[in-house]
Amino acid sequence: MEKIHIKRKGQRKxxxxxxxxxxxxxxxxLRAYLEEAIVLTKGKSKSEAKHxxxxxxxxxxxxxxxxxxxxxxxxxxxxxxxxxxAKGASLKAKANYASDADVAGLSDTxxxxxxxxxxxxxxxxxxxxxxxxxxTMLAATAAYTAVKGGKALVAEMSVSKTPQQAKDARDYARVxxxxxxxxxLKKEIEAPIKAAEKAKRKExxxxxxxxxxxxxxxxxxxxxxxxxxxxxxxxxx
Length: 237
Prior knowledge:
Radius of gyration: 28 Å
Mean pLDDT: 75
Number of helices: 10
Shape: elongated
Number of domains: 2
């Protein structure tokens, strides 16, 4: 006797949730793009990762992916999965990533930081009173040290102390770097779509003006009755 398998309601819903979005070819292209981005940014700080990903995106061979008709749908599906993973991360892993606790030294390039803060504070002062220069340098140093001290404290508290915590931090960093790479890709995919939508709106507005829905002072009349009255006034002149 042939067995008949009946899917229960819960099983059907699970199957629907797990159904892949888009074609296998597009998903493969996206997977390759993200895997390369993750490898490139492994062990890097947030700022380093952002810089590397921008350079990677500019140079990556992504034409086939961008030209895929289902690219946006596949990207948005992946975007949703990454958001869920990021939300599920521990608070310690998130703090670790935010402070670069596992990937950056706590005394990183403080001289450059002081110089950056000082430059913005010195610009108007040097032109008026050179005697205030030394005092401003001290203030800049204090301001930067306070910021770096706060970051160092967070990093000290959130640095991984067990293999599991280190793994969690790496996994969360992978997700965040994948999100950064995905954001760049999505913006590129959406650019022509948004441009087409903008052109369509401009054409619709031009058509409204052409049939008398424009005001002499500029802008569109919102109520058809007002539009009709204005059209009548124009015909009587």
